[in-house]
Amino acid sequence: MMGARLPDNCEAYRRLGPFAAVTLPPGLLRAHALKPGCWGLLTIAAGHIGFVWEDAPDRSIRLGAGDNIVIAPERRHHIALDGEFTLEICLYRQSESAGVESSASKA
């Protein structure tokens, strides 16, 4: 997993894809950010993409099959096409109850 890690108190709430070059929503090619409290996990199943953080636009990250990257809330980014690919995005939200349950189960 590249970059940040998902917080312990996250739970998956939506899965997007799989997408290929011809089915990728155009908005993912433009700068965008996840809303506060929402995290993303982008996973590449096949091929390659470029992933660009808007705060470091000259440093595109090349992701290939088997790679994934955690996307933190409110950090602007976009995808750059790099040939054929298949990717999936899973969205997570921070949950107060998940944090409480995990703390209680450790006691």
Description:
This protein is mainly beta and 107 residues long. It has a single domain (10-106), classed as Jelly Rolls (Sandwich). It is 10% helix and 50% strand. It has one helix and five strands; from the N terminus they run βββββα. Strands 1, 2, 3, 4 and 5 form a five-stranded antiparallel sheet that branches.
Distance between the termini: 29 Å
Name the average pLDDT. Answer: 88
- Write the CATH architecture name: Sandwich
Q: Which H/E pattern describes the elements?
A: EEEEEH
SS field, number of helical segments: 1
Query: Under the CATH scheme, which class?
Result: Mainly Beta
**Taking Cα atoms only, what radius of gyration do you get, to the nearest Å?**
15 Å
Q: Any idea how many domains?
A: 1
The CATH homologous superfamily is named Jelly Rolls
Poorly predicted runs: 98-107
The global form is globular
Considering DSSP H and I runs of 4 or more, what fraction of the residues is helical? 10-25%
Counting helices, strands and paired strands, the structural category is mainly beta
| Beta-strand content estimate | over 45%
**Quaternary organisation of the protein chains:** single chain
What is the name of the CATH topology? Answer: Jelly Rolls
Question: Major sheet: size, sense and barrel closure?
Answer: 5 strands, antiparallel
Number of strands: 5
How does the SSE layout of this entry go?
Blueprint: E1 10-20, E2 38-53, E3 61-64, E4 68-71, E5 77-94, H1 96-106
Antiparallel strand pairs: 1-5, 2-3, 2-4, 2-5
